[in-house]
Amino acid sequence: MRKFIAQNLGAVLLLILASGCAVQQQPTQFSPLNASATPVRLRLDKQVDFSLSTGYSRTLKSGSLWTDIGSVTEGEVLKPYHGVFTLEGSNVQEAYLVVASNNMLTGFYLPYEHKFSPIGTQISLPLSKQE
Amino acid sequence: MLRFIKLAIIGLAILLTGCASGVKYSVMAPSIPAVSPDQGRVFFYRPSMIGAAVQPAVHMDNVIVGDSKSEGFFFVDTNPGNHLVSTATEVERTLTFNLDPGETKYVKTSVSLGLFVGHVTPELVNPEDALKELPDTKYTGTPLPTGGAATAVATRAPAPTPAPVAPPPPVTVAVAKPVEAPVAPVVASTPTPAPAPRQQQYAAPYSPSEVSRAAPAPVAPAPVAATAVVASAPVQTYSVPDNNVVASNNTQAYATTAVAQQPVSSGEFRLGESSYTVEKLARQSGCDSKQGAALISEAGPVENYRMTCVDGKVFVAHCEFRQCSAMQFQ
To answer: Chain A within 8 Å of B115 (Cβ-Cβ)?
Structure first.
């Protein structure tokens, strides 16, 4: 047994070091908002908490503002206005919300990777248009 | 009891080792120039003292832009667009984000437990949260204003309150500079006649896009092929209250300047623990050598290497905890 542990210690240590799940990603096509269009700003009326598939939790603050900057096939892309939002797994990635037409959060757009990261269970976001 | 006191002193010394000791953000903030509208700015800071001895280099887009030092901060001006920040000790942690023109983003680094060495993780922080933590951090010096960016000079004066002073006269800064890239945080070095007034210099935000090649310096003290960069931009001066410790190590880094000034015996070739790693790194950059990579600094967790390529070029690398990156290749 001791020999087995000694032999596999390296592998175990490596496993521990490399632990931390990566954020799921899939290809998508981002279409930015027309330059002449006025970006729509939305306000989150109520705090929303959810967990990521990586085990980390995230909170969208009540009153936070989000700007519609374009769309991907999975929905409209909302970028935080005067704030940041990130996904965290083994690494940290800035992300924008992707919201379907019924205000359901379907996932996140990763601007660096140009990819879409789906959320496990879709969440309804209480968004209202900011005048 | 005596043993306990000894242990406590040693522990305290370890804790304090590596803490930033530059000008406080709260003092320096009024003098920090506004970000150019066609560029973005990234502040890097580490408010916690935990793991102070762990100070990995901070890479942005695979270029070293500074060190993650406890209670330290520095900032970098760069092109808008996508950026990747990474830090590595026994594992590498990355952060990816997008920067808009004129935007300022804040990257906080923090230490978590590792197997042998703490892991340093960069994360993006909301501006309002960052601005609450930044005031107590101290400037840790940084990247060089190559290509004409402004260089600021902090003068320690007995003034009670920080006061940005104008007008800034032009200054000529001679720098031994790694050219190949927006490489290391190089510190502008002007002759500083010692003791008083104590003077501290820090480089203005580093702009990878502004890096330009310059002519070889006639006065490079070391065999590293250095170049002189003349920054004729204005100098900003501000006063630092007496209670601010202005130490010189905040202007230090593993800048090429520092590398160039290290005493290297021309006849002695020393191999280091990371020689092989550096040779591999050099080969990937197209530098082959018969002799290999020579250790040109003291052996330890932070080392510098130099390798002369068969075509006469020189490859300089910086290693921390055996994580090496190219500093210069020309």
So the answer is: yes
Residues written for chain A: 131
Domain termination site, one of B260, B292, B312? B260
Identify the residue among B43, B60, B87, B97 best suited for mutation to test binding to A, counting A beta carbons within 10 A and taking the highest: B97
The domain of B65 spans 13-260
ipTM: 0.82
What's the mean pLDDT when you consider all of chain B?
64
Q: Is the pTM of this model over 0.95?
A: no
In tens, the pLDDT along B193-228 reads: 333 333 333 344 444 433 333 333 333 333 333 333
> Based on the domain organization, do B194 and B115 belong to the same domain?
yes
Q: Is B97 on the interface with A (CB under 8 A)?
A: yes
Q: Which of B95, B80, B244 is nearest to B156 (CA)?
A: B244
| Nearest CA distance, B124 vs chain A (angstrom) | 7
Question: Which among A16, A83, A112 has CB closest to B84?
Answer: A112
Q: Hey, which bits of chain B come out as E strands?
A: 40-46, 57-60, 63-67, 72-78, 81-88, 92-99, 104-112, 119-125, 138-139, 151-156, 164-165, 199-203, 235-240, 294-295, 302-308, 314-320, 323-329
**A7 found inside a domain:** no
Whether residue B245 sits in one domain with residue B144: yes
| Interface check B121 vs A, CB under 8 A | yes
**Alpha-carbon gap: A57 to the closest alpha carbon of chain B (Å):** 15
pLDDT on residue B223: 36
Report pLDDT digits (tens) over B135-188.
989 888 654 443 333 333 322 233 333 333 333 333 322 333 333 333 333 333
Q: How many domains does chain A have?
A: 1
Yes or no, beta carbons of B95 and A93 under 8 Å apart: yes
